[in-house]
């Protein structure tokens, strides 16, 4: 009872509750997140992860990711600068403490886009986020979207598809995610996402209006 009270009080002091987005590569996480952040400017802030993968055309260093070498990333991990890190499809990815603090310092809802290893690791930390999994309607649709995105080589595509099967199973595990959204029709999935986050959005809007 007291524990729950104090953990709520602590969360309130740390600002709004962060939101974790997970799900297979190609499920539509970035598409949905970008729409959300555009519509609700000043409500959400993106936790900019570090990665050793190369930037894609149109991606910006410091906005989509911090693009770093393995050496730099490993050193920062060893220095205790990361909340969590993982290897996905042969590249390192991780959430730095600074990335989350930068968003929380502005009293915004911190959005994390992380894989299932990240979800497992964050569960053991005191971030206390809401967990949302974004899933594709089927493996065939996922493959088509990933191919049409034209960001992957055949090799990295195959790695992503393999990982996607595991991520899809993980999405069904009980007691991991608070919400599951199937991204079939984009507008419908986006509507569900907004509905899911309505309470959080209204809380942040009220606080920013009263300050
Ligand atoms: N654990 C963890 N996973 C991350 C992080 N940043 C991104 N990811 C995940 O890494 C995977 C690959 O991301 P990316 O290379 O951008 O490819 P995409 O998901 O196909 O657009 C996705 O599942 C992301 O959710 C992070 O900081 N930590
Ligand atoms: N509902 C949808 N219908 C059709 N295409 C979609 C839909 N959602 C996303 N896409 C497209 O599918 C591809 C993968 O989406 P993306 O947001 O990059 O996924 P993720 O961030 O989960 O890897 C992108 O090219 C995107 O434009």
UniProtKB/TrEMBL annotation:
Any single GO CC term annotated in Swiss-Prot or TrEMBL for this entry: cytosol
Q: Give the main location.
A: cytoplasm
Keyword line: ATP-binding, Cytoplasm, Kinase, Nucleotide-binding, Transferase
The segment(s) forming the Guanylate kinase-like domain are 16-198
State its Enzyme Commission number(s): 2.7.4.8
- List the Pfam families hit by this protein, alphabetically: Guanylate_kin (PF00625)
Catalyzed reaction equations: GMP + ATP = GDP + ADP
InterPro entries to which the protein is assigned, alphabetical? GK/Ca_channel_bsu, Guanylate_kin-like_dom, Guanylate_kinase, Guanylate_kinase_CS, P-loop_NTPase
Location of the protein in the cell: Cytoplasm
Determine if Iron is one of this entry's keywords: no
What one GO molecular function would you report for this record? GMP kinase activity
Q: Which family does the entry's similarity section mention?
A: Belongs to the guanylate kinase family.
User: What is the name of the protein in this document?
Assistant: Guanylate kinase
Q: Which organism is it from?
A: Eleginops maclovinus
């Amino acid at each position: 009872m007291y524990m729950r009270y104090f953990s709520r009080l602590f969360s309130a002091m740390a600002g709004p509750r962060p939101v974790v987005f997970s799900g297979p590569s190609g499920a539509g996480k970035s598409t949905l997140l970008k729409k959300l952040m555009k519509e609700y400017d000043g409500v959400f802030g993106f936790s900019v992860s570090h990665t050793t993968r190369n930037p894609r055309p149109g991606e910006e260093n410091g906005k989509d990711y911090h693009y770093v070498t393995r050496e730099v990333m490993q050193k920062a991990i060893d220095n205790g600068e990361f909340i969590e890190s993982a290897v996905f499809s042969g590249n390192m990815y991780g959430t730095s403490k600074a990335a989350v603090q930068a968003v929380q310092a502005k009293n915004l809802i911190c959005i994390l886009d992380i894989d299932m290893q990240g979800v497992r690791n964050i569960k053991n930390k005191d971030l206390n986020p809401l967990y949302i999994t974004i899933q594709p309607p089927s493996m065939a649709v996922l493959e088509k979207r990933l191919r049409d995105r034209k960001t992957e080589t055949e090799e990295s595509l195959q790695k992503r598809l393999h990982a996607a099967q595991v991520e899809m199973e993980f999405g069904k595990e009980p007691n991991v995610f608070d919400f599951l959204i199937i991204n079939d029709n984009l507008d419908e999935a986006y509507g569900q996402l907004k509905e899911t986050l309505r309470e959080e959005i209204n809380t942040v809007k009220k606080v920013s209006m009263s300050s």
